[in-house]
Automatic annotation (TrEMBL):
UniProt family annotation: Belongs to the RecN family.
Signal peptide bounds: none
Name listed for the protein in its UniProt record: DNA repair protein RecN
Gene name for this UniProt entry: recN
Keyword line: ATP-binding, Coiled coil, DNA damage, DNA repair, Nucleotide-binding
Coiled coil stretches, renumbered: 354-381
Keyword ATP-binding: yes
Main function: May be involved in recombinational repair of damaged DNA.
Residue intervals of the RecF/RecN/SMC N-terminal domain: 18-534
Length: 581
């Protein structure tokens, strides 16, 4: 049962297509048309809806922007629906609307369920909705990495579980190895840094600075350096306030304030305002006496010891040595010493850390070796089943004697490898296996890598066989094939159509084809037509039914829609397809 169905696409101002609506069916839809009519634009449009790369050159000449809109029915519980709703999209009766706009200047915008979203979200949704296969995908199947991915996908949990653990251990090993490499290669630099830190910390420790000591010493040096001037000023101030015993006739502040207080105190009872002033004059007298006393004490306690001044300046010079090297103030110097001690402890512990890292690295290598062996075993077991299933499908695709096998091996190394099966082998993020898909097209032919031993037509059928096998184990709701029948003709083309029809029983299948043998098996036949009004080429998409479909198949067979012989052959094809499904 197909949960997701791409119901419709509307394409505007894309390539040769001015404005066209592509209505698709849940089963097998064939898209045909003359060369240059724009069949490939259907594939390109779906690619844009799925987050594919946008090229401003695709925008129709004279248009401001190209727009592709799609309507997809989805199960509200599916991963795609949940992810879309997380992005703010709205589903209407189980229908998800997706659009992609590409401006002539190259700007691209995407909308899902009425909400503007990053283009990358379309790619995320595509993983759960559609599998697109074109000529580039066939070429991709030639790469060993893609072949390994196909095998891993078929193996399912037997590979995915160990591979996840392997990938985590592999990432950790890379991090551990990088740290170990850095510590060992920078040993000389670290030793030099440690020596400098030890020297600096010893220098600070020998000086034993106290927090704020530099500020205190600066103040003391300032006071000791001006002791005589300070004492003279204090004596003069004291005499001005309290009088000079050696000058009985002199006038001082205390005497004047006392006289003022006596003058107003005698009459204070006659006016409350004057009484207040009398109180304030009394307070002034007390304050003058206090300050005079403090000045006398200050002068008596002032130390003008030049020896002490020398000691202070010597200490300040020692602290200045520290502040020149390790911080602007003693507080900064002490902070540097704290940080330096921590860093020195770290550097001194590097030897222990190197040992720890080496031990962890060895343990990770051993773990990776075990996991890599588990992956090899799982892949080997799955490879036999996968190859057998693909071989059976090829027999149904007019390659009855072809045989597909997998070669799984590891490359031994004397350098930095892991031990698998008692051998040191090269390893990577996906294990130690090198996977290669081999094809023997007929009896007696040695199995050869498909990159070397498969023709274009054979490669197309191998890819289709792989997808049919996947449909039974890891289905995708919608498949889009762009000329999967390239290089195929005759009986092989009929079998390709038959297998696509079989695939369409459990998934939606859209095929862009130039072969009538394939198109005849479709549940829905769409034709991309182009007309020329003398200045602008416009393409439209029409559904072919009844007589129109016979005429289109006749054109594909003989290039002549009205040829009686071609029409008879087309009707025969349709009848054979209906009987052979």
């Amino acid at each position: 049962m197909v949960v997701h169905v791409l119901e419709e696409m509307r394409i505007r101002a894309l390539g040769v297509i001015d404005d066209a609506v592509v209505e698709l069916s849940p089963g097998f839809t064939a898209v045909t048309g003359e060369t240059g009519a724009g069949k490939t634009m259907v594939v390109t449009s779906l690619g844009l809806l799925l987050g594919g790369r946008a090229d401003a050159a695709l925008v129709r000449i004279g248009a401001k922007a190209a727009v592709v809109e799609g309507r997809i029915t989805v199960d509200a519980r599916s991963a795609a629906a949940v992810r879309a709703e997380e992005a703010g999209a709205e589903l209407e009766d189980g229908v998800l609307l997706i659009s992609r706009t590409l401006s002539a200047e190259g700007r691209s915008r995407a909308h899902v369920g009425g909400r503007s979203v990053p283009v990358g979200l379309l790619g995320e949704l595509a993983d759960d909705l559609v599998a697109v296969h074109g000529q580039t995908d066939q070429q991709g199947l030639l790469r060993p990495a893609r072949q390994r991915q196909a095998l891993d996908r078929y193996a399912g949990d037997a590979v995915s579980g160990p591979l996840e653990k392997y990938a985590g251990a592999y990432r950790r090993l890379r991090a551990v190895s990088a740290e170990w490499e850095e510590l060992t290669t920078r040993a000389r630099e670290r030793a030099q840094e440690a020596d400098l830190l030890r020297f600096g910390l010893e220098e600070v420790a020998d000086a034993e600075p106290r927090p704020g000591e530099d500020v205190e010493l600066a103040a003391e040096a300032e006071r000791l350096g001006h002791a005589e001037a300070l004492a003279s000023a204090a004596a003069l101030a004291h005499a001005a306030l309290a009088g000079n015993p050696e000058d009985p006739e002199g006038v001082d502040a205390a005497t004047l304030v006392a006289g003022a207080h006596r003058a107003v105190e005698a009459v204070r009872s006659h006016d409350s305002a004057l009484a207040g002033l009398a109180d304030r004059i009394g307070e002034i007298g007390i304050l003058v006496s206090d300050v005079a006393g403090d000045l006398a004490g200050y002068a008596d306690n002032l130390d003008a010891d030049p020896i002490r001044l020398g000691a202070v300046e010597e200490r300040r010079a020692a602290l200045a040595q520290l502040t020149r090297k390790y911080g602007e103030t003693i507080a900064d110097v002490l902070a540097w010493a704290e940080q330096g001690a921590a860093r020195l402890a770290e550097l001194d512990g590097d030897d222990d850390r190197i040992g720890e890292l080496a031990a962890e690295r060895d343990a990770l290598r051993a773990e990776l070796g075990e996991l890599a062996q588990t992956l090899t075993d799982a892949r080997t077991e799955a490879a036999g089943r996968f190859a057998e299933a693909v071989t059976a499908e090829l027999a149904s695709l007019a390659m009855p004697h072809a045989r597909v096998t997998f070669a799984i091996h590891q490359t031994e190394t004397e350098a930095d490898g892991i031990e698998v099966g008692g051998r040191a082998v090269v390893f990577g993020p996906h294990g130690a296996d090198e996977v290669e898909l081999l094809l023997a097209p007929h009896p007696g032919a040695p199995p050869r890598p498909i990159a070397k031993g498969a023709s274009g037509g054979e490669l197309s059928r191998v890819m289709l066989a792989v997808e049919v096998v996947f449909a039974g184990s890891d289905p995708v709701p919608t498949y889009l094939f762009d000329e999967v029948d390239a290089g195929v003709g005759g009986k092989a083309a009929v079998e390709v159509g038959r297998r696509l029809a079989k695939l369409a029983r459990s998934a939606q299948v859209v095929v862009v084809t130039h072969l009538p043998q394939v198109a005849a098996f479709a549940d829905r036949h769409l034709v991309v037509e182009k007309t020329n009004d003398g200045s602008v080429t416009r393409s439209g998409v029409k559904a072919m039914e009844g007589e129109d479909r016979v005429r289109e198949l006749s054109r594909m067979l003989a290039g002549q829609e009205d040829s009686e012989l071609a029409r008879a052959h087309a009707e025969e094809l349709l009848e054979a397809a209906r009987a052979g499904r």
